[in-house]
Amino acid sequence: xxxxxxxxxxxxxxxxxxxxxxxxxxxxVAELAVSEPDPAQRQRLSEDHPGLRVxxxxxxxxxxxxxxxxxxxxxVLRTMAAVGITxxxxxxxxxxxxxxxxxxxxxxxxxxxxxxxxxxVGSGVAAMSGGSAAQAADLDWAEGILASVxxxxxxxxxxxxxxxxxxxxxxxxxxxxxxxxxxxxxxAGLSREVSRQLVVGTILGSARMMAETGExxxxxxxxxxxxxxxxxxxxxxxxxxxxxxxxxxxxxxATERSKQLGR
Length: 263
Prior knowledge:
Blueprint: E1 5-8, H1 12-23, E2 32-35, H2 39-48, E3 53-55, E4 64-66, H3 70-82, E5 87-90, H4 97-104, E6 109-114, E7 124-130, H5 136-146, E8 150-154, H6 160-168, H7 170-187, H8 192-213, H9 217-224, H10 230-240, H11 243-261
Parallel strand pairs: 1-2, 1-4, 2-3, 4-5, 5-6, 7-8
Antiparallel strand pairs: 6-7
Helix pairs in contact: 3-4, 6-11, 7-8
């Protein structure tokens, strides 16, 4: 019996989706399968999810998640079409739904999405867009998969390159800030363990404040910044060093690279 969903690519994002779906109640034995070419990763997936069908290659399924590198995506889609898979959720960066649909062939339905790595801990955020043949039921199907590992936003496809620049690559920006803050704490005399605990707690708490209060980040920043105080001194340095502009340029660079991948 064909599984309800085949995850093609058992790397970080594919594994995150598998874990989220199983936690949400999908049965690894009856409803899911994963295709992964690396033998060591296939072994890990089998150990992590007893009973899960783990294969090297593409097998028939009611639908599939495409979680492979952009350079092999179209070839994999042609293989999917050959075994009868016609509905695909692609999380491949840069490749347009038009290109994906062309590779999948006539009758194929593609929903394109850009999740991010916090999906690994169930706290991801993804934007998704339907291709030319996608109907409401296809979008609901794709959102149900992505929602197992975080929040989902529906957007026109023309915005997905910007999504890649903001949230797809965004965790790396936050981790870079965390690295710098931890090193700064060490330079100021803290131990690495204490500095890390303070920085992680600060980032986590700040994110929760934005999420739970609904206030604009500028308002929250102003509330922490007393005139002539320590925070004001720090922010003056950050603005002098053009940190704000650097982030804007970084997002623009990631967005442009996403566009290049799709050409």
